[in-house]
Structures
1.
Amino acid sequence: MNDSLNDSVNGGATRAGEMDVDGRTVPVPADPTESLARALRRAGRTGTHIGCANGDCGACTVLIDGEAFKSCIVPAWRAEQRSVRTIQGLAPVDGDLNRVQQAFRSEDGFQCGFCLAGPVMCLQELVDGDPEPSDDAVRSALAGNLCRCTGYQQILRAARAAVSTGPRPTDRAPAGRADVAPG
């Protein structure tokens, strides 16, 4: 950790850092205990839901520099000088849904939509790193996301549809993990 980060976390100094959220510059909260999920919601990215606030459900999943993380357990300051992509930022500027979002829509991969960020963002990370993942890789990517509505079969059907459509240049980014906070 650099000295300015130690000063801000340990000394309570005001943060002046920024993060890129879906292509917009957003200030990093001064409070070192504020979660990234709360900071994103305050910044208007309300597609990032807070379901459990302890990293169990996945409703708050975002991509940080292309890696999926459960933002309710990531301190917002960890996203300083990083690129954060929310479910709202997946669709290209022209408004069309990307291939993962389109598959979930076409295959009715959700019901209420509260948990949607989890499976969509984790699957996005997977296809960004491997445009033709195995069924086991799809199931592994979706593990750790809870849904109380669908019974998971609709989510798996949507995931299979998304991976069968092949890559598009707008879907590409580096791969990573959702269960470890960025360092």
2.
Amino acid sequence: MSKEKEDRLLKIFKEDLTDLDELRSLFRDVFDASQTTKHILIDGFDKVPRNEREMVFSTLATIDSFSQATVKGFLSSRHDIRNEVDMAFTNYWKRTTSRPKLYGDIATYVDVGIDGKVFEGELTVGNPNLLSETKNVLSDGTYGMFLWVFFQIEDICTQTSDDDIATAIHSLPRDLPETYQRAHAKAVRNSKVAIGK
């Protein structure tokens, strides 16, 4: 794609993708009158707000109406938006990562992480069932993010009671940006407490 077209694309997305006509115009310019194979790569599509995803789906679905090119698209995202993709594109080839294998790896990571913290004395619970519940909640909520699990285990270890741990595991951040925001807010709170002493 030419630099001019890249700049147009960046401008469209920096302005919150409100101009669907401009996006379609750009696609026409890129794909029109071309009989070669073109590739579209969209990574992290689940991070795009839903209304903007719908606009992109709508635009992508119209490419074959004005282009003679063979268009191959690669869309990567979390499993969450699979139904949206299925509704937007009824005839496509898809490949998903092995969720059971990934889940098994993360579940092992959670087990080892929690058991290690208990062994080292960094995590203490009165109710042993809380450990099992904590492991299950962490394994189910990871979305494949090992780093997310690491941060949640570290946060759980800072809790001072079973009730605090239960509250923490039932109000987990959904993703890494939210995890970072919470960690930052906690650090700011803790530094104010230390300064106030």
